[in-house]
């Protein structure tokens, strides 16, 4: 163990008593102090790894800094500016404030110092402070400092809550102790007394603003350990409030003051230690004050903390589950402190309302039906502490009443519920009344999300439904999901309730319209609650989840038909999303296959609404207008099949009718000119392309031919779908799609769809759909123009695409955060005409370009492409034929394709952004084939 005391004493002893030059003093101090700090931090890191005590590490680092600053102070005051007979003005106290004042310090933390003076600053005190700060700055320490008299501190503390909080945590280091004691006593008497309510209000407002900035949920999968909800700053806020209100000095005093029970205080200590351990490891691992527990950092911290894989969870997932359980415990402690503050009138009820999620207070006492409950300070509580022991079903009834009467639960009742979890055993779980109450709560038309989240945070939900308890605080180590699994399920129920209530009618008019026609409403809500219930198991979570649904359905009170519907929805909850985003929706085979699984209009409606709520609850930015377009298209096309209208008109007659409608719009075309144009397109063009696009293509090609051009581009934005469409007309070329994707990648275009058509006279008409990069159309159109120019130049041979892609996305060797095994599926049953290649693997810059290049070298004709990203995982689907226009059926030919695709991933650089621009959260994909009815999904 490194002891810096001897080195610091020797350093101080070696400084000449008569030294008078500040520069020489710094030259003498800084190199040795820097070495001592580095050795002290290295020792603290090794002890942290060995002893696994985060609070001890933070205290050890604080003690190191105390000793270093004391040495600087002694060198300056006793050597440089020595005052043998100091006057009253030549007094100073050096005080630690902020986190440093609490006696804890992370490796990269700021050093907050107060230089306390008896009166205004003098030449002597100014010289001392300046000399000390110059040494600290030369040591590259981040120092926050203030120089004030006692009177100035009190004046600033009364006016500024941040200064008041810093003074609340002040800790005497060295200097004039009498001066510090005067500040402490006057601060307590002149600032603190009688202002507890003001302070509590201010700290909670500050906390709300901080949490909103860093992430409103404590279950974000990349949490901020210091400032995020459930992080260290929340514990600091609790102690500030308690210290200010209860007038205690140490955290241990909170038990004697009656705020915490001994068990609750041990929980406080456990949370504090764990969060400090994680934070110190983060600073040591990164070499800086890193507070965000990012995906790239999580595996490193999990390893440093000693976590291993177990029970189907990776080491990093087990670590993050521990983290989120701690964050939940911090929330429980927060509720305890708030309840006590309210009981002591140190805070007003509106603050508590905000803390617990903006409950609406419209409680009507005559509606209260259970004798065990009462209203206390406007909130639902129990009449006695043995209410749950007398009837454990009251643990479920408490939340049912909260939802039914739209009233918040008193924190004391929540606290008692958490202490009573052992009462929820097998008999309660199968109790008919308990399950009736739970099902009514789950399917409530009030605000089930809010009450269920509270039920989850008390632990009652996971105890009553053990399968749900298994996924509490569980995260999935990927970039697609923003929240833990339990938080995602609860949020998805909230989205579903908003769709049904009409709150999302403007955003999802189709879903709003059909949700009112659904007959299996209870099944929909239960399926929403269970759709990810089996995450983290070794088997497929959809299949395992269906088994859970078949077990829980009868227990909840569902009949056999409802249970079957729930199990089907859980098993197929990804089907509609995956079909819409990775299949050719204009291919009749796609719709027939999907309809064959769905089988009924009722299931189709259920699946659409569930899919929308599921995607919306993944996280901000995952749902897009483009996804809405795809889901809406799949819904309408499937609805037509299931209602018996799919084959009413023969294919040839449908083509003829489509051509007649287009002819009617082209009033300035001669009959011969239109017949010649119509003959250039094969039948599948007329069946796949929607009417507005057909009209635009006709005029675009006619203008291009009239100008004598063989290569041309056109582009436009589509605000409704949130995309930009780029149309390319060119002579056919075996590497055309590779050129297009490469040009988009080089110009920063993120491709979400590709429609590819060959004409009878050897030209191609391709429509590339790009996700928008700018909100303003004029900015987006300028970007589209740059991409179009790059494509035209590439098709004319003026630029080399491979070089452009390499320049924009250079391949560099660096560690990968995520590991995604590449996979290729070759399927000849999904389409009547083409072979479907479904390629998945680790996303990276240039991937789409590399894949299309590899396929073109194999002489495969790509008829459509469907591009998707799920966080770090790319899923790209290509509909291909051989050059003869036939499917790829030969085993040796398929083996060649597999080798070529796998070679692309074997040569790939690390995880990054998609070929074609910045990664978008969620899924970006494919085509909109048929004409789309108006309105969002």
From TrEMBL:
Belongs to the GlnD family. Residues 911-937 are annotated as: Disordered. This is Bifunctional uridylyltransferase/uridylyl-removing enzyme. Its EC number is 2.7.7.59, 3.1.4.-. It catalyses: [protein-PII]-uridylyl-L-tyrosine + H2O = [protein-PII]-L-tyrosine + UMP + H(+); [protein-PII]-L-tyrosine + UTP = [protein-PII]-uridylyl-L-tyrosine + diphosphate. It comes from the Bacteria. Its cofactor is Mg(2+). Uridylyltransferase (UTase) activity is inhibited by glutamine, while glutamine activates uridylyl-removing (UR) activity.
């Amino acid at each position: 163990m490194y002891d810096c005391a001897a080195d610091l004493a020797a350093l101080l002893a070696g400084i000449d008593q008569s030294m008078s030059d500040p520069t020489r003093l710094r030259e003498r101090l800084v190199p040795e102090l820097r070495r001592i700090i580095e050795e002290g931090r290295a020792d603290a890191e090794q002890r942290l790894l060995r002893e696994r005590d985060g609070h001890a590490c933070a205290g050890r680092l604080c003690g190191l800094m105390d000793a270093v600053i004391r040495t600087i102070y002694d060198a300056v005051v006793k050597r440089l500016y020595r005052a043998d007979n100091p006057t009253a003005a030549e007094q100073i106290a050096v005080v630690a404030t902020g986190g440093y004042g609490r006696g804890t310090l992370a490796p990269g933390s700021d050093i907050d110092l107060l230089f306390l003076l008896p009166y205004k600053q003098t030449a002597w005190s100014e010289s001392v402070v300046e000399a000390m700060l110059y040494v600290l700055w030369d040591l590259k320490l981040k120092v926050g400092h203030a120089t004030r008299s006692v009177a100035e501190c009190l004046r600033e503390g009364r006016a500024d809550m941040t200064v008041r909080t810093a003074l609340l945590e002040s800790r005497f280091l060295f200097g004039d102790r009498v001066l510090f004691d005067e500040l402490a006593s006057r601060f307590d008497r002149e600032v603190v007394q009688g202002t507890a309510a003001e302070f509590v209000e201010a700290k909670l407002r500050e906390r709300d603003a901080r949490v909103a900035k860093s992430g409103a949920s404590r279950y974000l999968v990349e949490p901020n350990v210091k400032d995020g909800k459930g992080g260290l700053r929340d514990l600091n806020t609790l102690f500030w409030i308690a210290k200010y209100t209860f007038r205690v000095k140490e955290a241990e005093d909170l038990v004697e003051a009656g705020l915490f029970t001994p068990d609750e205080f041990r929980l406080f200590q456990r949370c504090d230690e764990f969060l400090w351990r994680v934070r110190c490891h983060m600073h040591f691992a990164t070499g800086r004050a890193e507070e965000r527990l990012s995906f790239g950092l999580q595996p490193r911290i999990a390893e440093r903390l000693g976590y291993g894989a177990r029970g189907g969870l990776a080491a990093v997932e087990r670590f993050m589950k521990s983290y989120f359980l701690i964050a939940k415990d911090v929330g429980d402690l927060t509720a305890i402190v708030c309840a006590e503050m309210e009981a002591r009138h140190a805070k007003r009820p509106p603050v508590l309302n905000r803390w617990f999620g903006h409950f609406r207070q419209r409680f009507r006492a005559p509606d209260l039906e259970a004798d065990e409950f009462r209203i206390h300070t406007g909130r639902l509580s129990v009449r006695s502490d043995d209410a749950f022991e007398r009837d454990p079903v009251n643990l479920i009834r408490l939340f049912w009443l909260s939802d039914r009467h739209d009233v918040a639960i008193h924190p004391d009742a929540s606290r008692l519920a958490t202490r009573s979890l052992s009462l929820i055993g097998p008999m309660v779980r199968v109790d008919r009344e308990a399950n009736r109450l739970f099902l009514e709560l789950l399917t409530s038309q009030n605000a089930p999300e809010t009450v269920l989240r509270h039920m989850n945070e008390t632990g009652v939900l996971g105890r009553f439904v053990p399968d749900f308890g298994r996924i509490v605080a569980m995260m999935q180590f990927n970039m697609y999901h923003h929240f833990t699994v339990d938080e995602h399920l609860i949020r998805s129920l909230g989205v579903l309730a908003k769709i049904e209530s009409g709150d999302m009618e403007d955003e999802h008019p189709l879903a709003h319209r059909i949700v009112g026609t659904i007959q299996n409403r209870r099944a929909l809500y239960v399926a929403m609650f269970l759709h990810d219930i089996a995450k983290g198991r070794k088997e497929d979570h959809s299949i395992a989840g269906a088994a859970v649904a078949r077990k829980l359905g009868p227990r909840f009170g569902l009949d056999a038909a409802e249970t079957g519907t729930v199990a089907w929805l859980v098993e197929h909850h990804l089907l509609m999303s995956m079909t819409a985003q990775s299949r050719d929706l204009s291919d009749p085979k796609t719709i027939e296959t999907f309809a064959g699984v769905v089988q009924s209009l009722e299931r189709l409606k259920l699946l659409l609404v569930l899919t929308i709520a599921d995607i919306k609850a993944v996280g901000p930015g995952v749902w897009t207008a483009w996804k809405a377009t795809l889901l809406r298209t799949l819904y309408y096309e499937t609805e037509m099949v299931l209602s018996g209208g799919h084959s009413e008109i023969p294919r040839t007659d449908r083509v003829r009718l489509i051509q007649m409608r287009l002819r009617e719009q082209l009033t300035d075309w001669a009959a011969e000119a239109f017949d010649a144009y119509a003959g250039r397109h094969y039948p599948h063009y007329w069946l796949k392309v929607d009417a507005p696009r057909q009209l635009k293509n006709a005029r675009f090609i006619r203008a291009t031919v009239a100008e004598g051009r063989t290569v041309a581009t056109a582009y436009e934005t589509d605000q409704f779908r949130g995309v930009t469409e780029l149309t390319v007309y060119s002579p056919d070329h075996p590497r055309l799609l590779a050129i297009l994707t490469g040009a988009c990648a080089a110009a920063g275009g993120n491709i979400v769809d590709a429609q590819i058509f060959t004409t009878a006279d050897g030209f191609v008409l391709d429509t590339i759909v790009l996700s928008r990069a700018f909100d303003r159309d004029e900015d987006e159109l300028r970007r589209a123009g740059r991409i179009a120019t790059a494509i035209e130049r590439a098709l004319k041979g003026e630029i080399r695409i491979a070089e452009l892609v390499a320049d924009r996305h250079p391949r560099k060797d660096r560690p990968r955060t995520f590991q995604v095994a590449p996979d290729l599926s070759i399927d000849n049953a999904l389409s009547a005409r083409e072979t479907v290649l479904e390629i998945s693997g680790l996303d990276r810059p240039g991937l789409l370009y590399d894949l299309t290049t590899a396929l073109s070298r194999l002489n495969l004709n790509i008829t459509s492409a469907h591009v998707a990203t799920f966080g770090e995982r790319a899923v790209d689907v290509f509909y291909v034929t051989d050059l003869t226009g036939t499917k790829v059926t030969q085993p040796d030919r398929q083996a060649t394709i597999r080798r070529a695709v796998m070679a692309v991933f074997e040569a790939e650089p690390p995880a990054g952004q998609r070929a074609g621009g910045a990664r978008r959260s969620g899924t970006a994909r494919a085509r909109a084939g048929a004409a789309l009815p108006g309105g969002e999904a």
